[in-house]
């Protein structure tokens, strides 16, 4: 970007991380906020879903979570579900076809 280091684009990283208590949640949240470039961290303990928004690489985020003793993996892609939704006609297009 300015001739030094790596430049990242703003991206949303969605991960699956099992958090079973408040202490785990706090440790992971603290580790994520220490990463330079992180702008937002959202955690859903019920679904084990963590969303990180920022100018960071997903490998860096996963490594920071693993250092806390938690296992992190990329959230399963919803591309199959999105394909099935796209194949069904949209209700709004039916209205405009009349």
Salient structural properties:
98 residues; alpha+beta; Alpha-Beta Plaits; 4-stranded antiparallel beta sheet; 4 helices; 4 strands
Overall geometry: globular
Low-confidence stretches: 80-98
The total count of strands amounts to 4
- Count of discrete domains: 1
Named CATH architecture: 2-Layer Sandwich
Give the fraction of residues assigned to helices: 25-40%
Strand order of the largest sheet: 2-3-1-4
Class by alpha and beta content = alpha+beta
Q: Report the top-level CATH class.
A: Alpha Beta
Distance between the termini: 51 Å
Global Rg: 18 Å
Protein name: HMA domain-containing protein
Domain HMA: 10-73
GO molecular function, one term: metal ion binding
Keywords: Metal-binding
Task: Quickly describe the structure.
This protein has 98 residues and is α+β, with helices and mostly antiparallel strands.
Write the layout of secondary structure elements.
Layout lengths: L10 E7 L4 H12 L4 E7 L4 E6 L3 H10 L4 E3 L4 H9 L3 H7 L1
Antiparallel strand pairs: 1-3, 1-4, 2-3
């Amino acid at each position: 970007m300015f001739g030094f280091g790596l430049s990242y684009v703003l991206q949303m990283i969605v991960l699956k991380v099992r958090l079973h208590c408040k202490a785990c949640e706090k440790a992971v949240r603290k580790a994520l906020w220490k990463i330079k470039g992180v702008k937002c961290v959202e955690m859903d303990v019920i679904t084990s879903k963590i969303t990180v928004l920022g100018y960071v690489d997903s490998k860096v985020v996963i490594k920071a979570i693993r250092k806390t003793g938690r296992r992190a993996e990329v959230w399963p892609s919803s591309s199959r579900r999105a394909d099935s939704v796209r194949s069904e006609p949209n209700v709004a297009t039916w209205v405009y076809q009349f």
